[in-house]
């Protein structure tokens, strides 16, 4: 089963992705985590990504695609995967379709819907480096302009499912389980 989880910063994607990954025994692929570890290890990709991430912008499609492509096509992803934080632009979504073009297409795009103001508070409480209020605002702006166009993109393909993210974590998981219909 190939799943994409998407939603604005702080909507709980990471938590839900971990849960689905464990329940279905499929890898959890978070581009945010991959990029953060590239930054920590000071690799070439990390050095390029660091400043953009600190400002709350999007790392270039070229860089992100280079790290996702090999990962998605690797052997442990053959039975499925859950993508968390990717794609974030229509170009990334198109490229993903292109390189999955071996019969392994996306089954579900789960969109976690939340209220921006409540989330702002949740993120400030989380206290990560890129969770400073002005940076969070920038991440929301980036989400609204670059990532929201993915909604019609996946709606057209009939695989977009809305999930109410403004409820307890367990309730969100329940809703996801119902959509996936598998556990
Ligand atoms: P996340 O943990 O998913 O919120 O990602 C943290 C940061 O990594 C984002 O604010 C972006 O700067 C960068 N990032 C993660 N995934 C992507 C992506 N698919 N495209 C571009 N930048 C990304």
Core attributes:
5 strands, 5-stranded parallel β-sheet, single chain, 9 helices, globular, 183 residues, binds adenosine monophosphate, Rossmann fold, alpha/beta, 13% strand
Tell me what the structure shows.
- The protein is α/β, with parallel strands linked by helices.
- It has one domain: Rossmann fold, CATH 3.40.50.300.
- It contains 9 helices and 5 strands.
- It has helices at 13-24, 31-40, 44-55, 61-72, 90-99, 116-126, 133-147, 150-156, 169-180, and strands spanning 2-6, 28-30, 81-84, 108-113, 160-164.
- Strands 2-3-1-4-5 form a 5-stranded parallel beta sheet, with helices on both faces.
- Helix 1 packs across helix 9 (169-180), helix 4 (61-72) packs parallel to helix 5 and helix 6 (116-126) packs across helix 7.
- The protein starts with a strand and ends with a helix.
- 30% of the residues are buried.
- The structure holds adenosine monophosphate.
- Residues 9, 31-32, 35, 52-53, 56-59, 64, 85-88, 92, 139 line the site of adenosine monophosphate.
